[in-house]
Amino acid sequence: MTETTRSSTSTDVPCFLVDRMLGRLAKWLRILGYDTVYLPQLSPQGLMREGRRQSRIILTRDTRVLRQKDAPPFVFIQADRFRDQIKQVIATCHLDSLTRLFTRCGECNELLTTVKKEAVREQVPEYVWQTQAEFHQCPGCHRIYWGATHKEHVIAELQQLGLFAESSRI
Fold first, then answer.
1. Would you say 58 and 73 are in contact if contact means Cβ atoms under 8 Å apart?
2. Taking the domains of the chain in order of start, what are their residue ranges?
3. 20-76: per-residue pLDDT in tens?
């Protein structure tokens, strides 16, 4: 992708490797449902090596990557603000900001699984158990997810960014 766009088909879903300067962007890409690995300990060379090994598009703000002749596909993130960063990635990589929304764990990047309400009764606050109908769990870190205010805040943020129409439903 080296600062260019790549054609994307419905089966061609990009996976990302994000550098140490873009942790918030990594979390938002996961919220949007994109497979996004965040390894802040990697050097620019390590990032490129890992990107190649895992066939991931590197998202970076490190200008040293720009000077690499044999760099794997990457997008140089120009903006400082995460809102502009997410807009750039969505536009450059032709991402759908709604189809995969809330399908990945924001912490460990695993795909969430649906769990029966009864199975999480002892793991969520009583009010949440009484007021929510659907629950999802991360098979990696076992974090439990449900709708409520976090989902509303994410949708409001996406609306502010112009990525989610108010008339859209999830």
1. yes
2. 16-92
3. 999 999 999 999 999 999 999 999 999 999 999 999 999 999 999 888 888 899 999
Q: Which residue has the tokens 């409001």?
A: 156
Q: Judge contact between 150 and 128, C-beta under 8 A.
A: no
- For every residue of 55-77, DSSP letters joined together read T-EEEE--HHHHT-TT--SEEE-
∠ CA 51-93-61, rounded to 5° = 55
Q: Using CA atoms, how far apart are residues 13 and 34, in angstroms rounded to an integer? A: 8
Classify burial at 115, counting beta carbons within 10 Å of its beta carbon; exposed 0-12, middle 13-18, buried 19 or more: middle
Kindly report, residue by residue over 102-150, the tens digit of the pLDDT.
Answer: 999 999 999 999 999 999 999 999 999 999 999 999 999 999 999 877 7
pTM score, two decimals? Answer: 0.85
Nearest-angstrom CA–CA distance, 152 and 154: 5
Residue 36 in tokens: 């996004």
Residue type, 15: C
DSSP 134: -
- β-partners of residue 104 are 111
